[in-house]
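Format notes (please read before filing issues)

Several people have asked whether sequences and structure tokens are stored in separate files. They are not. Every record keeps both together, in the order shown below: the sequence lines, then the token lines. Line labels are part of the format and must not be stripped during preprocessing.
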Amino acid sequence: MKKTAGTMFVLLALACRPLFSQPAIEKQSREAYSRNCIYFELLGTGLLYSINYEHRFAEHWSGRVGFTAYSIPGFLLFEPAISMDFLGFPVLLNYLAGSNGHYFEIGAGVLVLNLSLNGREIWSGMDVNGQLTTVSGAAAIGYRYQPTNGGFLFRIGLTPWFHHGGSKILGGLSLGVAF
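Then the structure lines:
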């Protein structure tokens, strides 16, 4: 009986050993990185601008959601006046390759965009009041500086936009904070 109890104690101690091993602690410190960031993107996936929140759910993977809203006054587009109002939400999944705060970023997702037109068309004199909601493809490819312990965030790159009428290659510049 004493031999069986001793054997069970040794087996239990060996089974619990990985819970206290040093390599697990080293792995945890090696994967330290700032998980969240908030940034302003000029041009880019929000077309004119966007304010974004991003969360890194793994060392090399993050998800992003943004918001953009702006109006273009009619006198800039048509005469006498048809104004355009934009409301958009870029949503992307990103892969980050690199280390120590310097990353190559590639991402893909969608831009949900609501467009409203309001005004009077010049040639027919008819009132134009319409609304369109559409989902377009969005992508990001570029350089990201995001320190592992948080702080200043910088992104620059190309932001292709895919829609039913074709595609456009835009560029974007982002400034923000990682925490």
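For reference, the curators noted about this record: The CA atoms of residues 4 and 10 lie 10 Å apart. Residues 15-29 have pLDDT under 50 and may be disordered.
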